[in-house]
Structures are given as C-alpha cells and as structure tokens.
Amino acid sequence: MEITLNVIREKIRKKMLYITTIIGILVVTLFSTDMGSLTIGGKNIKDYYVLIPILINVVNFLAGAIALAMSITTVPNEYERRTSHLIWSRGVGQSKYHMSLAAGNVIVSWISGFILYLTLGIFAIVNGYTNILGMIFISTIFMMIYVAIICMLTTALSIKLPAVVTGVVMIAVFVGGAFRSILTLVSAALTGFGGTVVKKMIGIIPDLAGLSKQAGNMIQGKPVNVHVVVMGLLIIWIAGLGILFFKRSEA
C-alpha cells in the first residue's frame, strides 16, 4: 500500500489533477455554448439525451489519454531512480512491486476520470437535467473499466519494453480502441487476405468505444451489452497476469 500511495503522491505533485480540472472546465464551457440549430437524427444537439453519448466519448477519451500519459513512465522512472533497489532490500518481490505501481496508476487515473465526469454532472445541472445525475454517477463504472484497461496494459508493457516503444504501441491500442466502431465499419469493405488480417487485428483491440457506448446507453435507458463489459474485465485480468509475471532484468 505504501508503494501505491507514493505513486499517487508523486502524480499529484506533478499537477496532473489540476490539469485535469482545467480540461474538465474547458469541456463544460465548450459544450455549454450555443450550438445553434445543429441537429442529429432530427433532434437538436442541445438535447442532453442526444448529446450525452458524445460527451461521454469525449470525457472517456480525455480520461484514457491522461491515464496513458501517467502510466507510461511510472515503471521506467522507478528503475531509473533505482527506487526499486530500496524496495528489494525490504524483501518485496517484483510481482508485488509492479502491481503496486499499476494500482497507483489506476487510482490516480480514476480520480482524474471522476473529475472529468463531474463536468458532465455540472453540464446536466446547467441544462436542467438534475434527474439524470444518479445515472451519470453509476455510468462512471464504465469509465473505471476504460481507464483500468489503459493503465494495466501500459504498465505491463512498460516492464518489458522501452518507454518509447510502450508509448507507440499503447497510442495505437488506445486510438484504435477509442475509434474501434469506425475501424470495424471501414474494415467491412476490405476483402481478401489483407482484409482478414485487418479484421483480426481490430478484433483483439480493447473495445473502448463499446464501453463508452454502454455508459451512454445506461443514461439513455437503453439495454447495456454485458459482453463488452466482461471482455473489458478480461483484458484487465490478462494485463494483470502480465504485470505479475513480467520481470525486469536490471532488478
């Protein structure tokens, strides 16, 4: 627990939570402006029930980006500062150490996500949708899974790969997952061996877009696809196994 708390304190000292708050305020300001007669499906976009899926995608994407930025350097920095060697002297194994670092990444990223979701609540109050605040709170569950996927995968890869390589891989995974539904639609037009390969690659990318969609469905009173949630939890579990079993040679 002490290792996890140290990670949290370090991230807070780097002002990431303050940056998150500013981003949240900017998001609220942006979507509180008059959007004129812009409509989707014949409904004005200012209708919160129409706008909420868009807002959730924006907020989850921001939360995921922050989680990625905070998780990439956590493990490499610990080894570069040789903090790890102080841990070994206390008899703490690599598995416990790495999992504690991952937990710190996840918790700080959740805090950032909650701050961003608070902007959704503020936006709902400003527009007179106070009756939906409870559902917005419950929908943070999907944000927590979304962010945990990013943190756990990033932490696992950073144990074995250089920070730059981890960053490139995880940016591809993050962007691909956030726009997975669009990629799936585009890949449907592809044929032959290349098309099959692309579709298989898209299939293994975490369905971050799907998680955001389920959050929007919950708030709109639509059915939630449990399969998407279960697959997200499965990815977190697999990444957790990687964190437990991956080792650093310089330890």
How would you describe what is shown here?
There is one protein chain. It is built from 13 helices and two strands. It is mainly α and 251 residues long. A hairpin with a 2-residue loop joins strand 1 and strand 2. Helix 2 packs parallel to helix 6 and helix 3 packs antiparallel against helix 6. The longest helix has 33 residues. The radius of gyration is 20 Å and the shape is globular. The mean pLDDT is 80.
Secondary structure topology:
Layout: H1 2-13, H2 16-32, E1 39-40, E2 43-44, H3 48-72, H4 74-80, H5 83-88, H6 94-126, H7 133-138, H8 140-160, H9 163-178, H10 180-187, H11 192-204, H12 208-220, H13 226-245
Antiparallel strand pairs: 1-2
Helix pairs in contact: 1-6, 2-3, 2-6, 3-6, 3-8, 3-9, 3-12, 6-8, 6-13, 8-9, 8-12, 8-13, 10-11
In short, what is this structure?
By secondary structure, the chain is mostly helical. 78% of the residues lie in helices and 2% in strands.
Low-pLDDT segments, ≥5 res:
none
Using only C-alpha atoms, the radius of gyration works out to: 20 Å
**Order of strands across the biggest sheet?**
1-2
Continuous helix count: 13
Shape: globular
What is the terminal separation in angstroms?
Answer: 20 Å
Specify the structural class.
Answer: mainly alpha
Mean pLDDT: 80
Share in β-strands? under 5%
Order of helices and strands: HHEEHHHHHHHHHHH
Let me know the number of strands.
Answer: 2
- Main beta-sheet strand count, sense and barrel state: 2 strands, antiparallel
Helical residue percent band: over 70%
